[in-house]
Amino acid sequence: MLDPRQLRSHLESHAQALGRRGYVLDVDLYRELDERRRSLQVQVQELQNERNQRSKSIGKAKAAGEDIQPLLDLVADLGDRLKAADHELQQIQNSLDTWHMEMPNLPDPEIPDGDSEDHNLEVRRWGEPPRFDFRPLDHVELGAIHTQLDFDAGAKLAGSRFVVMRGGIARLHRALIQFMLDVHGSEHGYEEVNVPYLVNADSMRGTGQLPKFEEDLFAIAGHHPYYLIPTAEVPVTNLARDVILDDADMPQRFVCHSPCFRSEAGSYGKDVRGMIRQHQFEKVELVQMVRPAESDEALEALTGHAETILQRLGLPYRVMLLCAGDMGFSAARTYDLEVWLPGQERYREISSCSNFRDFQARRMQARWRNPETGKPEPLHTLNGSGLAVGRCLVAILENYQEADGRVRVPEALRPYMGGADYLW
Question: Is pTM beyond 0.85 here?
Answer without folding.
Answer: yes
